[in-house]
Design brief:
The chain is globular and about 35 Å long. The N terminus is likely disordered. With 98 residues, it is α/β, with parallel strands linked by helices. The protein has a single domain, classed as Phosphotransferase system, mannose-type IIA component (Rossmann fold). Helix content is 38%, strand content 16%. The protein is built from three helices and three strands. The longest helix has 15 residues.
């Protein structure tokens, strides 16, 4: 099994004792919420884990507005974004451009 860094962008350097948050972007709200629940068991309560799953109206897909809200909700030393499919990355890129 091989791993690869798809993108890495350093926005700011922080010297405070804050944790990097996690944003989970998925076409399925149920998958995003379930993964967040699982990761929270390992990460503990000090790590912000925010989901942006599903499209408008509870459909499958991604919602750029929801992604932007999730990115803004990780008030820490930045965020790692996990996305399930290529179009999820497009939603993340569009939100970062805002």
């Amino acid at each position: 099994m091989a791993f690869d860094i798809v993108e890495c962008q350093v926005v700011a350097s922080v010297n405070e004792d804050r944790f990097v948050g996690l944003v989970i972007v998925s076409h399925s709200a149920a998958i995003a919420d379930g993964l967040a629940e699982l990761v929270a068991q390992v990460a503990g309560p000090d790590v912000a884990i925010v989901t942006a799953g599903g499209g408008p109206g509870g459909t499958l897909g991604t919602d750029g507005g929801r992604v932007l809200e999730a990115l803004r909700a990780t008030d820490g030393a930045g965020a790692v974004v996990l996305a399930d499919l290529g179009s999820s990355l497009l939603s993340v890129r569009a939100a970062l451009a805002e």
